[in-house]
Each structure stands twice: as structure tokens, then as C-alpha cells.
Amino acid sequence: MTVTLLLEPLPADARIDDLASTFREVPADAPALRVGELSTQRGDGVFETISVTDGHAQETGPHLDRLRNSAVICELPEPNLAQWRAAIAAAVALLPARGEFALKLVLSRGVEHGPAPTAWLHAAPAADFARVREQGISVVTLDRGYAHDAAAKAPWLLLGAKTLSYATNMAALREARRRGADDTIFVSSDGFVMEGPTSSVILRHGEVYSTPAPSGAILHGTTQMSLFDHLAETGRTTEYRDVRVEELSTADAVWLVSSVRLAAGVTELDGAVFPYDADETRAFNDYLLTPRD
Amino acid sequence: MTVTLLLEPLPADARIDDLASTFREVPADAPALRVGELSTQRGDGVFETISVTDGHAQETGPHLDRLRNSAVICELPEPNLAQWRAAIAAAVALLPARGEFALKLVLSRGVEHGPAPTAWLHAAPAADFARVREQGISVVTLDRGYAHDAAAKAPWLLLGAKTLSYATNMAALREARRRGADDTIFVSSDGFVMEGPTSSVILRHGEVYSTPAPSGAILHGTTQMSLFDHLAETGRTTEYRDVRVEELSTADAVWLVSSVRLAAGVTELDGAVFPYDADETRAFNDYLLTPRD
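Above: the input entities. Below: the C-alpha cells describing the complete assembly.
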């Protein structure tokens, strides 16, 4: 069960009454993109992945805000968020009422020399992460090659944008598996914790939850933000700050959180057993599986 | 006038008599790729751009060697080079006998969870670079964020592979234009000359031509190698070595060389007028426009 909708290019401020007329469904197994697409030739575009849980698209607002922010960083035309909201709602309506789905939004620079960007969304069943959420993951740290302040000095590195140029992220996941691990935490060349290739990192020291400050070198994680809101609302202390790599080993618990897999607790770090809080991980995922906006 | 051929997945060592039956032409303006393509979702694939000059595909062998090397680095199935050669020949036969064309080869990891990679080539008229070849380019240096030995320490950065994840390269070109320049030379975070976003750097000090050693952090440039072969054959001294950023300012001439634009002499560097050798640049391009294998 998949749903693919192609969106017609629309200026960010266009007000259209019949937004449903600006996108159309295409068969998932049929070709929909031209080879001149800059998304495919250059990884030149931005994306978001939203979880659709039992018929509810999670955190649509934060995802669309980040899509727009990524577009601004990449100097793409700003997306029309009303159109995206309508397309997301249409896709959700076509999906089964139960179950978890991954809904990917893509905004590409379009066909080379073309007049307009290309945009589409694609929803497919999520992998079954029940076991991972329950039992946790083994993680290795890998050098991301950049200093943690690289983004401020070199914005053309696009580090704060969720671009389609993810070949390195995918290679890092392959390297993790080669080392017998499930996932990786990127560390900066100057010794700071950054993020996972497709996730944010949350540490707990005592009663304090921290995550690397989104200085531009890492993405502001929608799931991490949602969880921090929840923690703050329930009286816990959260903080954004620079986190040294050594602090991973002194943490009482570490999680990688992302939109579709949700909270995965670290059970092993760089080959050593790591303290894993099964109860808190379960509580995190219970919260993350509720409808959130 | 464009030509697009889709190649059927073929193991590297498959020996097929009728190779022409393993690829087919598709209309350039028709959709040919599925939205599940990892090339478009993740920039997950590798490519080459070959110049076709008056009916001759330049340096096909070195380009295919590099395509294979990129595939190995990215753990993609090795391409069947006989099939690619046959497809390139078929595309060239469909192009006009005169003029310059850019022929792009793409090898993608294929559709997500799909059984096989996707491969295609696409030929289109090259931009008219006559003026640039004659009058040169203004260039700014931009920080690439990595140390020059990053690739050796972190192969998952894929720095030696020509991947489809080129969003940063494209952003660097936009930054150069924002600064009033035509192109950029990437420099490492520790002060070494690397490469252009789509070109190699050649410096001349006196009678010696040098280019940054392809240590894995930069691509081995096919046009640079071809030009160095030519220089060596005509009695000039060439060398691969680490090049400090300061050496740019002491050079007697600097060129950015690439497959389609060919040799572009630097006339301005970071806002200052730079020595430009029009005669030697013309000689380089005269050579580069001859049929080369």
C-alpha cells in the first residue's frame, strides 16, 4: 500500500481555493521523474519524512517549517505550505486507518534549466520497529569530518538543511553494520557529538536531558523537539548545548530519536555494553505513538 | 537534440553478444524514473560526465575506470563496462557529427528495497564555453570544511567517489556567483588546495605544472590526467603533491580543467587580478578539443 502524489509548482504565497486540483496521484511503480531531474543528478533538493500513525500525520507543522527552512538554506523557491498540508491530508486519507507509514516529502530544484521545482510526496508502510523500540540498538561513533562550528564559517556546506545529498549518511550506516552495529553517532573532527545519519541524539545525565545545540551543523530534530516539549511539560530539565564525545560514556542513557523509528535506546556503544533504560524508552515511545501536532 | 538510454542491470562480468539489446532509448521529456529511486531520495549513486566532441566521446576509458572506482567506494554493484561502452557508442551514433555534447552516465542504487541498480545515460548539447576558454574565469576560494587527509581517516565520507550527492558543490557555485565570481576552488580546513566543485586545479610555477595529489579527498580528474600526459609527452614537468593555499598566489598561472568546459584560466582570484596566460590556455584547449582516448 503506497501513495504517491505529484505537486504542481505553486508560489509560496499563492492562495488557491481548490488546492486538491494542484496535485495528482501517480502509480508508485510507474516512472514519474525525468532523468534531467536535479534531485537525481545532483542530490539537489530537500526532504522531510513524516510518520503517519493510525491515520494521523505526526508533527506536520514542525516538518513543514523545517522543509521551508531547508529550502531557504538551499535557495530553492519557498514551498507553499497550504498546498503541502492539503497534499499530506489527501495522502493520509488514502492510507489505511491503522498502522504506521512513512510519508516522504521531496522538493527538488527540478529539471536542469527547467522553469520550476519538482515536488512530490510518497507514503509507504513503515518498517516494523517494535523490536528495536523494545530492545534498543548498538551504536558506533564515526567522524563526520567537519568541525562542530563548520556551518557558521561555511554555509555553502548546507549542514543545517535536510538535503537529498545523503550518500555519506547512507555510507556511514553501512560502515556501522560492517562493524557489527545497528547505527552510528556522528562526531565532529574537534570532538563534539553531532547527530545520527537519520536521527537526533539525546543523552540523560542524572535527571537532565541534553541534546547537541542546533548550531547549524546539525538538523533541528522534529522528534527530539517533540520529546523535549513533553519532558518539559512533565517537569523534567532539558537543555541544548555543545556535548563533548566523552560525555557519551558518562551518560546514564542515550537515545537516537527519529520520526519513524521513534526512540531507540543505545545498548552498546563502540563495542562496550551501555546502560539501557527499558522503562523510560517504552514511556518515550508510548508518548511518541500518540497523535502529536 | 538529446539522447537518453536506460541500461538494464547487468553483472560486471556478464558477456552478452547483443549488448544493444540491454539498453533502450527513452524520450528525454518523458518520465523515466520512479520516485522510489535512491538517486533522487538520497543522492545515492555515482556519475561521470563525458564530452562528445565532433562525434568522438573523449577519454571513455578513464571515465569508465573512475565510474567503476566510484561504484566500489560506494559499494554499488560494479558496472559492466562493455555494456557502458556499447551504450556510449550508440548514443554518440545518434548525436550530430559536429558540435560538443555533454554525455552523463549515472549509476544509481536503484529503487528502495529494489533488487537492482538503475543506470542510464543522457546526452545534451554542451553550453557554449568558447568565450570562457578564451577569456578565463574569476574564482574565489571557499572552505570545504574537511581536513585534506579526511578521506583516509573516514572513508564513509566518500570523498574519492563522484557521487550524486552534489548539493554542496552546487551551493558553492551559487556562493561564488554571489561574490561576483564565476567559479570556486575548494580549500581544506587545514589550508590545502583541493579542487573545484566540478573541476580539477592545475598550477604553473615557472616551468613546473602541479595539481593536488589525489589522496582520496579529491577526485582524480580525467581532463587533468589527459592534460598532464600531454604536457609530459611534450617535455614539460608535472607533479602531484600537497599544494598549500598560499601557493595559489605565487603561481604564474592557474587553471580549472573539466571534461566539458575544458581549460579555464583564472583571471581573478579572491577579488585580485591574477596572471592569465591566454596563449597557453588556447594551446591547452586546442589539445583538449582533439580526439582523445
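Note for the figure: The mean pLDDT of chain A is 96.
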